[in-house]
Amino acid sequence: MKVGFIGLGNMGAPMAANLAAAGHAVTGFDLAAPCPEGVTAAATAAEAASGAEVVITMLPNGEILRRVAAEIHPAMQPGAVHLDCSTVDVDSARAVAEAAASAGLRAVDAPVSGGVGGAAAGTLTFMAGGAEDAFATVAPLFEVMGQKAVHCGGPGAGQAAKICNNMILGITMIGTCEAFALADKLGLDRQKMFDVVSTSSGYSWSMNAYCPAPGVGPTSPADNGYKPGFAAELMLKDLRLAQQAAEAADADTPLGLAAARLYETFVEQEDGKGMDFSAMLPRFEKRGRG
Questions:
Q1: How confident is the model over 179-193, as pLDDT tens digits?
Q2: pLDDT exceeding 70 applies to what percent of the chain?
Q3: Which domain of life is it from (predicted)?
């Protein structure tokens, strides 16, 4: 398949490289990052999009996505698919899908889960929104870049699924870190705590697969000085997107709001920026109720 790929940062570069290694003809563009091996460099985003059957974007936010979409849609061939894998607000995803339809194109919003490691290994999970036929067109690309793709519904449904999932993740990680900090002060051994909770009703992905306590459970960023697998500032971005969507939809999300405020304090007022989102544990360890 002929693929344009715009946004070759930490996530986009390995995704594009995997597509090229699988035999797809990939032309890439990024304002700063170099093209990975096997990817042909374009001088502009529009050049990367020209003649492609699918154009993939992996961009930082909705404003940039809208701007890039306005640049690439006129260059895309009729019926081509704009596959956006960025994590952005639902309104931007739907606006880009509408713009694509107006230009005679198809669109799929498909944010990912799995981080840089999943991008490199080709084991990402894609949460996709858009028409069935557009999803079917890009499905072979999902098979190269990931291990699972779920068609969640119409335009914006992929972004909705991503922010709901990550709101749960932020809340459960905070709860897991709070519980470990409390267990410490109650004199409970961390391994014993893990042994109980990981096989009881308190288990979660945050505890069982990504334990925030060093030396406990499977290997996680906690065992590497909390160097990020998923950075705290990215969790803050997703929690803010969830709150933006909740306000627009008039949804009551008190724990989501509390999690967003905690990560905002951690990232912007404390030492959380550049740390893994599980580094909430050493934060709570140092704090008392005051």
A1: 999 999 999 999 999
A2: 100
A3: Bacteria
Give the angle 226-237-9 at the CA atoms, nearest 5°.
Answer: 75
192 is catalytic: no
In angstroms, rounded to a whole number, what is the distance separating the alpha carbons of residues 91 and 246? Answer: 12
pLDDT at site 117: 86
Which residue in the list 148, 162, 237, 286 is annotated as catalytic?
Answer: 162
d(CA 158, CA 42): 28
228-245 confidence digits (pLDDT tens): 989 999 999 999 999 999
Residue bearing tokens 């505890």:
207
